[in-house]
């Protein structure tokens, strides 16, 4: 009888502590005031015009030559991505190529200037 009573009291205490504990252990993360993802993809004729201006520029030709000299393969303009940053008004162009390990990389141009390359996350 004492064991049952002790088990009942301990079980009640545990149940009470689960539901009546102060605070909320599950809290949603506060929204960050980040404008880095505030971009709009560009499609159609406007995208084609931006890409045409980029690939005819000397900056692009130098970057492409550097990529090819490193042993990587340029994939052409088929999967090129064009974004406009809504807060800063800059144009971001990502040109895909394949590195020596077979990974898809994106050569990034911001307002026509080559900024480097990074792996493409799909």
TrEMBL record:
Keywords: Signal
The keyword Signal appears for this protein: yes
Keyword Signal in annotation: yes
Signal peptide: 1-20
Top-level division of the source organism's lineage: Bacteria
Name of the protein described by the UniProt record: Uncharacterized protein
């Amino acid at each position: 009888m004492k064991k049952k009573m002790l088990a009942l009291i301990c079980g009640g205490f545990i149940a009470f502590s689960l539901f009546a504990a102060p605070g909320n252990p599950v809290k949603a993360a506060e929204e960050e005031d980040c404008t880095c993802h505030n971009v709009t993809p560009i499609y159609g004729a406007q995208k084609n015009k931006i890409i045409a201006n980029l690939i005819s520029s000397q900056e692009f030709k130098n970057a492409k030559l550097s990529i090819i000299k490193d042993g990587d393969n340029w994939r052409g303009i088929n999967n090129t991505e064009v974004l406009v940053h809504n807060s800063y008004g800059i144009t971001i162009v990502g040109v895909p190529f394949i590195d020596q390990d077979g990974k898809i990389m994106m050569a990034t141009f911001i307002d026509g200037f080559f900024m480097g390359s990074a792996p493409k996350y799909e």
